[in-house]
Amino acid sequence: MTAFAAKTYQQQVLESVEAYFKACHELPSASIAFTATTERLWGRGNPYNPLAGFPADMPYFCLRVPTGGGKTWLAAKSVALVNTHLLRSEHCVVLWLVPSKPIREQTIKALKDRNHPYHIALREAGPITVMDLDEAKSVTRATLDTSTTVIVATRQAFQVEEEECRKVYQSSGALMHHFDNLSPEQRGALLCDGEGGERTVPYSLANVLRLRRPFVVVDEAHNSRTELAFDMLARFRPSGVMELTATPDMERTPSNVLHSVSAAELKAEEMIKLPVVLETEPNWQQCLADAIGRREALQQLADEERRGGAAYLRPLVLIQSEPRRAGVETLDFERVRNELITNHGIPPAEIVVATGEEKGLEQIDVGFRLGIADPACPVKFVITQKALAEGWDCPFAYILVSMASLSSATAVEQLLGRVLRQPGASHRQAKALNQSYAFVVSRNFAETAGALRDRLVAGAGFERREVADFVTAARAEQSRLDLEGYGGRVVVKPVVVPLSERPNLKSVPKAVRDKVSWDGKLNTLTISTPLTEDEAEVLKASVSSESAAQAIVEAAEVSRTTAIEFFQTPAELGERFRVPQLALRVQGELQLFDDPEVLEYPWELSPYDAAPSADDLSVLGAGLKVSEGGEIDVDGSGHVVSRFLPELQRDLGLVYQPEHWDALRLATWLCRNLPEPSLTHASKQAFVAAWLADLLSRDGFSLARANLQKFLLRNLLEARIRALRKQAVGKAFQQTLFGEAAASRVVVSDQYAFEFHTQAYAPSRDYDGRFGVFDFRQHFYGRIGDFDSKEEFECACQLDMLALQGRIQFWVRNLVRREGCAFFLQKADGRFYPDFLCQLPGVDGQPGPVLAVEYKGADRWNAAEDDRLIGGLWANLSDGRCRFVMVRDKRWDWIEGLLT
Known about the structure:
- The protein is of the alpha/beta class.
């Protein structure tokens, strides 16, 4: 397995982590940093919830990533950010907690494998040592001093009743050397055994960890923070805690969600197969036959693509059988396997059983180099009972078949997670191969679809507001009964039927009774919610006359057909919305302008002054005071400054002694740790050496101090070089896009057009009515991203009213920092995301122009000059296909003037 490029959403997650770590040092406390960072990232600052049992100002945050989003890779990639931007240390100890022993073994194996993407991501932190808790109990001081050490353990290992936990606190001769030559501050921080004169300091792993201030990574954290085991981690004096989960706790003990990834983002970036196409069938044998037919159809598509050069694919069916019960006939794994072999002619070699007793999948992993994904492996059907072995993963799984209802939450959530992952993390050519499939033995489609959505929310980490679109019906007649699938965009008219007799509703099950009501004065039965055929049969039995029974059957038919009025969005109706983008001619070739690095600009550091600024010297002075254990109680704004990070820096400075490098070696280290690929090494080396020489020539700055503060020096140099590059890019941007003959270099072309895909709209927050209520009818999607102000909301209302008049075909609330589901115009120092994009009516079947609308408050008008310039350029170069307007002071007439 080789390294892979980060998806856009993954890069954004890592940028959020880096921004938070930097803010922890720049702002008075981790809590203020969290609120400020989420405000900057998402437009609304989230409150900070301290972790019970830990210091209130310890950096603590959660990354919410749905199933299939690559949580473990993100965790591994974050370790380098921990070292560089939070701890400012060459090495650290990471305590990596996982939910179970199988996951622990799988994680250790992947993190140790030098060719695995997890290890490659981890190695960005420098030399790496990965070990389990047993190995950690004899870890050497040299190992901790010379590498970032990752200790992988289960959360249960830290429960007091566990033998493994007790050994963490026991003295060990193998660890004695860690406690040589400690300072009084270090000794004072250690745990002791005994009381009074018999107090001793055990040479325990717990005390080694207390000295090293480990950073804690909690994988799948949603079920761990109420356990005593998690509280006990505070005894190791962690430097910070990062949770990764699909389903963070937001009620009992709320997580600090720094960055939330949506399922729509994963779908847009080809990580998961959506929607889940659901089919229910009351006859289990027919249900299984339908699933077999679907698998064969998918196999044909995969084989056709294979002949065209696509990667090998063998779609798998995961079958959840019923458990065996004494004296009761159930659809257990033996019965399902016999059905496959006897009635469908499936060769036994193509079936594997994975239950508590049957270890078929383990045998497959041993027998084939690539496991079940190996082209030589014949398996097409996996029969399980409750859940598959933890850690088992195969993106070839496409179809989930449930022989029972979806009430077994854990098993269904786990199996759903298996079928969601996209093979190769890239879309296939055939649409059917980019979807997942579920076949459930059930008579009630709507109830089953609801249960499936519940499982996607509770187990896979999907958001409730987006999940309606991600479970769809395979058959149109079942789709009509799935009212939840229309996200509330449906009107159900009550069906009133006169009856000659009063129905005995007490004899009817409550689920049916809740859908009807009887009016004794008018002798009418009102059906308020559609009734299925089965429910109509049950209700029919509540009357005795044949005429009344027939009337109920006919009214029930109306309730699930003509009484339902569906409102479909333009996206659901199949409308396409494509917006031309800016492109540049680079060496004669047209290229999407999505990165200022494609501009040709002279980028050389030699013309610039290589000297620390007054601000740099001030920052270094404050940093020295912190590292020496001094306190800065109040900042310039009067905020009380947290002591957690200063004390952490002091502790790390004591345990990780600074190197005694000369100026040349220090400059070489700084160059190696400055990520600036656009510079030549010689240019960067000369600038850094000159900057460092200038610093060392000043009073109070010695080589010893420079070694001590090398991470802070790196950060200051990075900021300086970034600012200089920004200047160079700005000049090139101005010349290329707005200089002479710009039209020959810049193009708005249909060759590059952003398309708003049906299921790729992922707002970080949906509009919740906080500025007012409006029934938006012409928005491209059913969901609408939140508005930043009341004026922005009123602008959206105006657009929708203009659309209802026929002057706009449809419109969309554009999103910010949601690549894959948002349109942007590249600027020199960032991206401009217009608030709204409108498709204007077309002529003769051709789409009309696209209008981009940006609303700006009067207080932000002057600062938005560059947005107006790039928007105007985009419109001017489009030959009339694009229009742009920036509105202020509710000048809706400016919009109307562009609709003709």
